[in-house]
Design goal:
The chain has helices at 2-68, 97-100, and strands spanning 88-94, 103-106, 109-113, 117-122, 127-132, 138-142, 147-151, 156-160, 165-170, 174-181, 185-191, 198-203, 209-214, 220-226, 232-241, 244-253, 258-262, 273-276, 282-285, 290-293, 302-304, 308-313, 318-323, 330-336, 341-345, 355-358, 362-367, 370-375, 381-386, 391-397, 400-405, 408-413. With 414 residues, it is an alpha+beta fold. The strands form 8 sheets. A 4-stranded antiparallel β-sheet has the order 1-32-31-30, with no helix packed on it. A 4-stranded antiparallel β-sheet has the order 2-3-4-5, with no helix packed on it. Strands 6-7-8-9 form a 4-stranded antiparallel β-sheet, with no helix packed on it.
């Protein structure tokens, strides 16, 4: 029994020993792994320190390089590069969109013109003069000091100045246009279905009819332009020669005597506007052509045919807005009377003009609710600004832009 007990103890011991040997091996491996991990962590820590030192050295060198770079040269000032400041906007009168088409900017005043009344107002909306009228198709034509209200379906005409009604007229036919000769003369085109057209010359100070010229065989009168010195006027007519449109220009002195005529047969366009350049050359414009001619010379001085002519302003410089393509971007085109050439100037003014006006200093126009102003002295765009409400009409009073919008009257001070 003692022997069996010893054998049994030896068997138990032999069973336990292999198990303890495995634990020792695992412990040894774990210990070695811990040692390697500690060594690896130590190496990684050293690597991070080296990377941080390299980054610091790189940024230090970069700072030194930037510090040693030469200063940037100052660019010369360019007026066209300067941002355009926004103009101050003041709403002086509010009304509905229905009434917007009945208001006209008239110097520092307003004119309300409808089928049944004409009212002269100040910018605060206070009535200065009011009269009941009976117009079927009222239209308004004005300069800085006179406002002509005519009825397109009759010969009724009312002329206002800045204070009240100046005079009224009545034509046998229909009112077809009014053209100012400064503040001295007014030319009115009369349309008559039974007779050829008439041109009436009126003294603005008195309302006296100076002349009435009838064009029996020459054609239909479209527009009138007075010379710069107001010593004669030119009448633009159109006639049909076979199947071609024939423009005709007739010149008269202020006594009504014909003193010249021009038939530019080589340019058979339907010209709708006539004006004069600073040298009193005649300038005709259609929707696609501008023609400059001297009445005494046989050939026109110059012609310009872009894709489309939008508007033209006459003054110290004759300026047109045109596009090289019908739907292309607009550009400014100036006529140089000394060199007798057209000069084109690219400027960001969009592709459309809704309303247009000009003075001696500015040209103002708009596209929907965006108003743009050009300085006549240098041809630069000095204002490009959006307003609330679509613009119906636009006017200039000194350094103020008067906007008739669908919400009311707004004034922009330049």
């Amino acid at each position: 029994m003692i022997a069996d007990k010893d054998n049994s103890n030896r068997k138990k011991q032999s069973l336990v020993e292999p198990h303890n040997s495995g634990q020792s091996l695992l412990s040894s491996k774990i210990a070695k792994s811990d040692l390697r991990k500690k060594q690896t962590d130590k190496n990684q820590h050293k690597g991070l320190i080296i990377i941080c030192l390299l980054v610091l050295v790189f940024f230090g060198l970069l700072i030194i390089l930037i510090y040693k770079l030469p200063d940037s040269p100052e660019l010369p000032e360019d007026e066209e590069l300067k941002p355009i400041d926004s103009a101050n906007i003041e709403t002086v009168l509010e009304f509905s969109a229905h009434d917007a088409n009945r208001y006209f900017p008239f110097a520092n005043q307003l004119v309300y013109l409808s089928q049944d009344q004409i009212i002269l107002k100040n910018h605060a909306g206070k009535d200065i003069y009011q009269e009941q009228i009976d117009f079927e198709r009222p239209v308004g034509v004005f300069n800085a000091n006179y406002f002509v209200a005519g009825d397109r379906n009759s010969g009724k005409i009312i002329v206002l100045d800045n204070h009240s009604k100046k005079f009224s007229l009545h034509l046998d036919g229909r009112f077809a246009g009014a053209y100012f000769g400064g503040d001295e003369f007014l030319a009115i085109v009369e349309e008559n279905s039974d007779q050829p057209g008439f041109v009436h010359i009126i003294k603005l100070q008195t309302g006296e009819k100076m002349l009435m010229i009838q064009f029996v065989e020459s054609g239909y009168p479209l527009a009138v332009s007075f010379s710069n010195n107001l010593d004669y006027f030119d009448v633009l007519l159109t006639n049909i020669k076979g199947s071609m449109i024939q423009p005709i220009i007739k010149r008269y002195d202020l006594s009504g005597n014909p003193i010249g005529q021009k038939l530019p047969d080589d340019h058979p366009f339907l010209y709708g506007k006539i004006t004069h350049d600073p040298n009193n050359n005649i300038v005709l414009s259609s929707t696609s052509n501008i023609l400059v001619l001297n009445l005494e010379q046989e050939k026109p001085l110059a012609s310009y045919s872009p894709g489309k002519v939008y508007e033209i302003a006459s003054g110290t410089k004759l300026t047109a807005f045109a596009s090289t393509h019908i739907e292309g971007n607009l550009q400014i085109v100036e006529w140089d009377p000394a060199k007798q050439v057209f000069n084109e100037k690219e400027i960001e003014i969009g592709t459309l003009i809704d309303n247009f006006t000009y003075s001696a200093d500015y040209i103002a126009f708009n596209d929907n609710n965006k108003v743009k102003v050009i300085d006549c002295n240098n041809g630069n765009l000095i204002l490009d600004q959006a307003v609330t409400g679509d613009i119906v009409r636009i006017g200039i009073n000194s350094n103020q832009i008067i906007l008739i919008t669908e919400q009311g009257v707004k004034i922009l001070s330049l």
